[in-house]
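User: Before I run my own analysis I want an independent prediction to cross-check against. Here's the chain; please return only the structure tokens and, at the end, one sentence I can use as a sanity check.
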Amino acid sequence: MDSLKSLYPEIREVFQNSIPNFWTELKVVLAKLFEEPMIPEAILPLASCQAVDGEAKEAIHVCAALLALGLCLRILDDLEDQDRDGQLWKEVGATRAWNYASAIHILSFEILSKASLEPKIFHKINQSYIDAFFRISVGQDRELVGTTRTVEDYWLTVEMKSAGFVATACATGAMVGTDNPELIQSCGVFGHHLGLALQILNDMESIWQPDGITDLKQGKITLPLLYGLESHHSERDELLSLVTDNEIATHAERIKEILDKIDTKSFLIWAALKEREQALEAIKICPNAEGREVLESYITGMFGDIDLLLETPEDDKT
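Assistant: Structure tokens:
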């Protein structure tokens, strides 16, 4: 993994050098954002390229384009949620943040256009990014209009939004390293299940270990709440009534009590582990052990201490 992370300075350089020289303000904003650690997903295109026996260094531009796309989506998500400190829109205002997000989206394709790729491979990767952004936008729109009201709705939204981004990161990295469609698909499937697992854990953390305002206090319907609505338990009617009456935010603490009582976190951990199982199975055919191990370590390591994840408020007091 360290050999892949040693490519990060080059990725940052590609990113920064692609920003127009005449837009000083954008350079300053992005420089501040890049003072933070590289987003974890940056390793995925590199490791996927290596896993299919490609040269990870050749995926630097693909990775930098991914970073730009991810940053654009992050700014848009922050504008939607407005639930944490230190967000760009708080510094420059919502209107300018929208403008920056739009520019960074275009920047991702500018970066990709400079990659030293054969025309056929470039067009394939470029189309994958276009398709991914459309799918992510559909998922985002479903979330904004409140389409997610059942577990089936939830999976469709998450597959478009979260899983789509990660699957594209892995598949396009593999495209740099091979033209074998089976290997490319295996990396994409890995990314799909990884993205689902990440979203499940994120939904859990957004209620029990939030970085800002909880999903419940924002009135959001995510997998933990859907599990409570579709499971058979004594408080199900009360939960359904609160959701039907749009009282989620007002009664967030009561809803959390119910979710704790029916051991929702255990279900979420189980669901995420099932996604991990399918992700690991998908990349067994990848020929390069070192690259494959990086991908395996990524999805295994993100679970950390499962006992800690399952810890209840009562456990915290003991």
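Sanity check: The first helix runs from residue 2 to 5.
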